[in-house]
């Protein structure tokens, strides 16, 4: 197939909504528009004619795509060899170029032009990488010199953990779902961790392993996995090993198919005790629709070193609203707002926008004094639940009294492909066709000393007074000695 000939045809069909979108201003993130970002290779000092698969494209696919686009990886097609990739070249150009909008690949919808840009485990593509992909496809997707190919990735069982092989893998009971049948909700029991000492968890990654052969490519994610999502807790087992002792119980971040792993920043961490177990209390399983499937979840934990003690108290995300939501039919650019005043100094570890099918975007702002900082805006695609875990030195560090503001954007027009119905009003509720508006992220509370120490650390790393840290409004503020403040009475 000639890729050059295919491109205009594919572009015409796929880009039709953008071409017709004269009613929307360019790059309006509040609607489900899909206008691609294009970049010229020349602007990065690259001669487009020299861009090849083996030299330029394969490394990008390895890093950002093959976690899913490999045999058995969950995506509809493998993007490992040149022959596998080439027919998809125009679609790869398109899906990567929509970058932060619904449908973008890789699914990580961070808006690059605004807010904090440093995240852990960030698969997103740089402007230069997009320029390379676009130049490559425009040149007819040449293969290049096989000698330039990077070493292939390890797709063994151990090699496919996104964060590397875990220190401990706990497995859920094995479940079987018929090819076709009703969903199954409920408690699937207790599984011991086997730990003989307390350990603090640095990251947790959950994946499903099942008996669907790796070389069949079901067309949907729901056709490959039976566990849709699961909420669970852990705690110490009672003496007969039948139940968790209630006052040792703690809840863990949710598992949802397609959700990226949880990573706890230094000074944080969740405890798995000696003689603990996971209680898999709320699972939602569904039939694949085409095949009886037997599978289980694997919970992969990586630990902080032995003896590590977390310093900070965990607290949840910003919050939100799942109840009294009012979504109008057939209208783009609708907004939800939620404000919360921080009662403690807070470090935000992760931003996790949660909307339902109409959702297209969420922004997180910090309002401090007369300043309003946009910490981040991200696109939203209800086919993917993604969290954005801040890099160690970029996590917002906010003084108590800061007002956190989240804005959710929804689009209920036919521009939004996730929407089932453009005609009816919808309220809040649990199903995807009803609505939620929540930041499920993670944060920690800091004492005054911890807050000052953390800001001191940041200042040292920033170095220059002119280096600005969006998430740290007080980083450069003079430190007021407590005695002085007390002596000053109520003058402030
Ligand atoms: C986290 C898993 C994951 C990652 C990472 C990922 N993909 Fe995908 N990709 C999927 C899934 C699942 C689908 C099918 C559902 C959809 O279209 O959203 C898909 C769909 C696609 C499609 C459309 C296929 C079609 O049938 O039209 C293209 C093209 C694509 N991905 C390319 C890429 C590229 C290129 C990258 C890396 C830059 C990438 N993907 C990264 C999981 C992933």
What bound compounds does this protein have? heme C
Counting structural domains, the number is 3
Q: How can the largest sheet be summarized?
A: 6 strands, antiparallel
User: Unreliable runs, pLDDT <50, ≥5 residues?
Assistant: 1-25
Q: Briefly note the structural class of the backbone.
A: alpha+beta
Task: Determine the strand fraction and express it as a percent band.
Answer: 25-35%
Mean residue pLDDT: 90
Report the count of strand segments. Answer: 24
Q: Label the overall shape.
A: globular
Distance between the termini: 73 Å
Rg of Cα set: 24 Å
Number of helices: 8
* Percentage of residues assigned to helices: 10-25%
Describe the structure.
The protein has 492 residues and is α+β, with helices and mostly antiparallel strands. The protein contains 8 helices and 24 strands. It has 3 domains: 146 residues, no CATH class; 141 residues, Jelly Rolls (Sandwich); 133 residues, Sandwich (Jelly Rolls). The strands form 5 sheets. Strands 1, 2, 5, 9, 10 and 12 form a 6-stranded antiparallel sheet that branches. Strands 3, 4, 6, 7, 8 and 11 form a 6-stranded antiparallel sheet that branches. Helix 1 runs parallel beside helix 5. The longest helix has 15 residues. The chain is globular, with a radius of gyration of 24 Å. It starts with a helix and ends in a 5-residue tail after the last helix. The structure holds heme C (HEC). The site of heme C has 19 residues, from helix 5.
Q: What topology emerges from the helices and strands here?
A:
Elements: H1 3-14, H2 16-19, H3 53-64, H4 82-85, H5 89-97, H6 127-138, E1 168-171, E2 175-177, E3 184-186, E4 190-192, E5 199-210, E6 227-236, E7 250-251, E8 255-256, E9 262-263, E10 270-272, E11 276-285, E12 293-303, E13 313-315, E14 319-321, E15 334-341, E16 345-351, E17 353-354, E18 359-368, E19 371-379, E20 388-389, E21 397-398, E22 403-410, E23 437-439, E24 442-446, H7 448-462, H8 482-487
Antiparallel strand pairs: 1-12, 2-12, 3-11, 4-11, 5-9, 5-10, 5-12, 6-7, 6-8, 6-11, 13-24, 14-23, 15-22, 16-20, 16-21, 16-24, 17-23, 18-19, 18-22
Helix pairs in contact: 1-5, 3-6, 5-6
Bound molecules: heme C.
